[in-house]
Amino acid sequence: MRPLRIVLAEDHALLRAGLTQLLEAKGFAVTASVDNLTELERALDDPDADAAVVDVRMPPTFTDEGLRAAIAVRARRPGFPVLVLSQYVEQLYARELLASGEGAVGYLLKDRVSDVGEFVDALGRVADGGTVLDPSVVAAVLDRRRDTPIDRLTDREREVLALMAEGRANAGIARALVVTEKAVAKHINSIFAKLDLPTDTDDHRRVRAVLEWLRF
Amino acid sequence: MNRSSEQFEHSGQPGQSGQSGQPAGRWAVTGYAALHVLLFVPVVVTFVLVKVSAILVVVWVGILLLPAVLPIMRGLVGLHRALAARILGAAVVSPYRRLPGGLLRDLHTRATDPTTWRELLWMLWAMTFGFVASLLAVVLFLGVVTWPVWWYGVVPLMRARAAVDRAILTVGRTERLERRVRALTESRAVVVDHSAAELRRIERDLHDGPQARLAAVSLSLGLADDLFDTDPEAARRLINEARGTSSAALGELRDVVRGIHPPVLADRGLAGAVSALAIDMAVPVELALDVPHRLPAPVESAVYFAIAECLANTAKHAGAGRSWVRLRHEGDLLRGEVGDDGRGGADPRSGSGLPGVAARLAAFDGILSVSSPSGGPTVVSWEVPCVPSA
């Protein structure tokens, strides 16, 4: 199996070198490593690229061009896997990234990179079409208590949904909650039913459930 | 209902009269002249009352009389100010000093307020030449044969009278500049204090948080380096610990940065940043944001923190079920309000929150007002002059 070809965009030279080293050590091929928006857009048009790891803030304006580029490339190439890294996370941006409902998207704080295993795992899940949200986004959503359809979920179902938002597969959720995978599958079906999500491929429903959950 | 409403203003309440618009025509002007004539007796009576009360201050009675008489004078003069404004089609503004509260202090403020003296001088004019001018306008109209004179003469005559009214009642250029300087000095002092306090807070946050943690990281790494050969297991534990500590340091740095200038504000401007703020609130926030352009960064920041402060207060104290944020940028004025349906009774003077916000807005000539009757709703609104940045 050929290694996944990654486009890396990060304007800070030290971090760029570190990430390149880390990714290559873990069996990814970094085909382009860029530090500005123009080069990123060119690299994203390369049909051979399999996925992108993108910093939110980059030249020329040092605002959110990385995020915009990620959303734009996914409009051109639906389902193109993008993992967005940032020094800070905003629920607003998480919603925007997930809005297309296609999955294959991740949004993580940069410091999560320090846990190499988790980070590589997250990138792999995004490349496979999964959705990975930073635990701090998930925690912020859990902090809100509002009168919404999410209230129909039981506490256990909410826990399952939070872990789904962090991008864990059924086996991972089962491990975290110390239950069987079968029980997790049952909870997930119940969540889909309570949120009125239409029958679809499993991955898309997972993304939609998470998006729905972010909305409230 | 215990209605507490407070205006934060740095130049006192202006005694403003009349809207700018079209100057009045000859019919209207004649009507106003008739009003002047009718108001002659009240003006004389008020003048005498003020004089008598002022003299009676010597035997103390005047101290009780003046606070009753001076507002009558203000009202009467205010009416004439409105008439002059209508005749000229331009606002006639003369600011009063803000009253500090308390019988004697109020009296002292009124007595030393140049506007009070200007009003007394104006009354002398209104009882003599001013009165004659208005009477003449009315007589020219009533004395049928003089209509040609009235037709051509009444508007210039009354405009001349109104111009003198305005000249006496409004502040001169020097005084206006003095007031402006005083207001600017005041708001500058507050802003300087505020930013010094902010810097101290940031220094403390950095010192107690990330700095201490990074020192711990470097200590852990040094120890790990030392143990690398002899006890690799312990070294690994220390490295793991260092990783956790550096994550915590980054988390604290993020909080400090949010307190200085939230990244989402830099990225998306006021409307985007307020939307992001609303998402994080536990209470549902309705948004009506109409800010099509980016505004100057200092204004964006001041207004953002004003909204953040109000929403934080709502979450902490109001017990509200619903809240709203409105923002509208029109011409060169940014208006906004934050409201909630909570229990009200917010005291705009207490704590450092709202006064701090008011001070920051005052630096841009912004005005903040708070209405929070007990039982709610609480509405904090503001107006900040600003033009969109290029």
Report on this structure:
The complex is a heterodimer of chains A (216) and B (390). With 216 residues, chain A is an alpha/beta fold. Chain A has 2 domains: 5-134, Rossmann fold; 144-215, Winged helix-like DNA-binding domain superfamily/Winged helix DNA-binding domain (Arc Repressor Mutant, subunit A, Orthogonal Bundle). Chain A has helices at residues 13-25, 37-44, 65-76, 91-98, 116-127, 135-143, 155-165, 170-177, 181-194, 202-215; strands at residues 5-9, 29-34, 51-55, 82-86, 105-109, 131-133. In chain A, helix 5 links the parallel strand 5 (105-109) and strand 6. The mean pLDDT of chain A is 86. The two termini of chain B are 47 Å apart. In chain B, helix 11 links the parallel strand 4 and strand 5 (323-330). Chain B is elongated and about 120 Å long. In chain B, 65% of the residues lie in helices and 12% in strands. Chain B has 3 domains: 5-171, no CATH class; 182-260, Single alpha-helices involved in coiled-coils or other helix-helix interfaces (Up-down Bundle); 263-385, Histidine kinase-like ATPase, C-terminal domain (Heat Shock Protein 90, 2-Layer Sandwich), CATH 3.30.565.10. In chain B, helix 1 (26-38) crosses helix 7 (147-169), helix 3 (61-88) packs across helix 7 (147-169) and helix 11 packs antiparallel against helix 12 (353-362). Classes of the chains: A alpha/beta (216), B alpha+beta (390).
List the helices and strands and how they pair.
The complex is a heterodimer of chains A (216) and B (390).
Chain A lengths: L4 E5 L3 H13 L3 E6 L2 H8 L6 E5 L9 H12 L5 E5 L4 H8 L6 E5 L6 H12 L3 E3 L1 H9 L11 H11 L4 H8 L3 H14 L7 H14 L1
Parallel strand pairs in A: 1-2, 1-3, 3-4, 4-5, 5-6
Chain B lengths: L4 E4 L5 E4 L8 H13 L1 H17 L4 H28 L3 E4 L7 H10 L1 H14 L1 H14 L4 H23 L3 H55 L4 H29 L2 H17 L5 E6 L6 H22 L4 E8 L2 E8 L12 H10 L4 E5 L6 E8 L5
Parallel strand pairs in B: 4-5
Antiparallel strand pairs in B: 1-7, 2-3, 5-6, 6-8, 7-8
Helix pairs in contact in B: 1-6, 1-7, 2-3, 2-5, 3-4, 3-7, 6-7, 8-9, 8-12, 10-11, 11-12
